[in-house]
Amino acid sequence: MTPLASLVLAASFQIGPFYEQRPERDFLAVRPFYSQECGVTDVLWPLFTSHESWWRALLFIHDQDTGSDRQFEIMPFWFNGETREGEKYWGLFPFYGWHPHMLLLHDWQFALWPVWMRYKMPRPSERRMMTSSVVLFPFVNWRDDGSWGVWPLYGLEHQRESDHQYALWPIVIWARYRADRDTSGAGKSWWVWPLVASVERERESQIMVVPPLFGFAKTPYTERWRTPWPFIEWERGRKRDRTSIFPIWERVEDKSYADGTVEATVTRFGFKLVELYDRETRVFPFWVSADDGYARLWPLFEKVDNGDGSESGNVFAPVPIRHIPQIDRNWAKFWTLYDWYDCPVFTEHSLLWGIITWRVYKN
């Protein structure tokens, strides 16, 4: 490569909103058809995206090859791949398939789903995998720990520290708990829907009337009232205080667990339409102002502190969410008609995607 070619490739270059090249992060964009940045390539995003070890098309076609394992999916209909141990797997949903790890399920097998499926899930407390089988999902199920159910008539579920049962779900539910340091301790709970529910355990007491509308709960660290939920809630505890009149007003104070001092607060109005944090103010979607230098007046204006003594901004910002890399790479330039960059030495202005650019130096 000649020195001139090296210089051209290293320089920032832009043609309107359609073509842009920057040396930072190996950035190149031919909008809206193609872009690349730090090894990520988009083609007509969100239709196609690729990385060093995977690619995704049309949001539901996915291929991944890490070198140690490989998988291909056309969700939810087809998948195939090979595990690190060399085991091949495949599935044609809903007819038949086996997958070693799908979402939270391990060794997931199915045939004519929902007629039959079997899967495993980890039981960390018992240091083993638990096997579950289901026939005519979700009606009949059983597990290798003795749990079973014929939904909604009756079911029994064993957990590490408790046994849960239901009859005519969700009308009657009850449970017994064994002593356990990681939970609320030994005791029992029951529920007769829609009338009343109760929890009585070593470190928790709770009563609900017409659940979940009215309730009172108490632990060694928290008291909570609902009168009725979700409209009026009142909570006082060691880690936080919260008062809510939904959807009008809410106040939350996060506290230090050690000494109870208030570490952070937020006040909300209109169910999160207005949020007043200690270091940030939000009026969704119209206004955001933060102590880190970020500000947005949607859809007219956006400003970002770059963290190096400079800031940049643009006029017209129709996306009411801060920094989505895929949108920034492939689409944002089309509506960035005017932007600027300000540093201690100068302020640079760019109009019509850089067709008109001028710089003003400071004293």
Any key phrases for this structure?
38-stranded antiparallel beta sheet, single chain, 2 helices, mainly beta, flat, 363 residues, disordered N terminus
Outline, from the CA principal axes? flat
Structural class: mainly beta
The end-to-end span amounts to 41 Å
Biggest sheet descriptor: 38 strands, antiparallel
Task: Kindly state the number of beta strands.
Answer: 38
Evaluate the radius of gyration.
Answer: 29 Å
Q: Portion of residues in helices?
A: under 10%
Summarize the structure.
This protein has helices spanning 3-10, 325-330, and strands at residues 13-15, 19-22, 27-30, 34-37, 40-43, 48-50, 54-57, 61-65, 70-74, 78-82, 88-92, 96-102, 105-111, 116-123, 128-135, 140-143, 148-150, 154-158, 162-167, 172-177, 187-192, 196-201, 204-209, 214-218, 222-226, 232-237, 240-245, 249-255, 262-269, 274-277, 280-283, 287-290, 295-297, 301-305, 311-315, 338-342, 346-351, 356-361. With 363 residues, the chain is mostly beta strands.
Structural overview:
A hairpin with a 4-residue loop joins strand 13 and strand 14. This protein has helices at 3-10, 325-330; strands at 13-15, 19-22, 27-30, 34-37, 40-43, 48-50, 54-57, 61-65, 70-74, 78-82, 88-92, 96-102, 105-111, 116-123, 128-135, 140-143, 148-150, 154-158, 162-167, 172-177, 187-192, 196-201, 204-209, 214-218, 222-226, 232-237, 240-245, 249-255, 262-269, 274-277, 280-283, 287-290, 295-297, 301-305, 311-315, 338-342, 346-351, 356-361. The chain contains 2 helices and 38 strands. The longest helix has 8 residues, at 3-10. The protein has a 38-stranded antiparallel beta sheet. The chain is flat and about 75 Å long. By secondary structure, it is mostly beta strands.
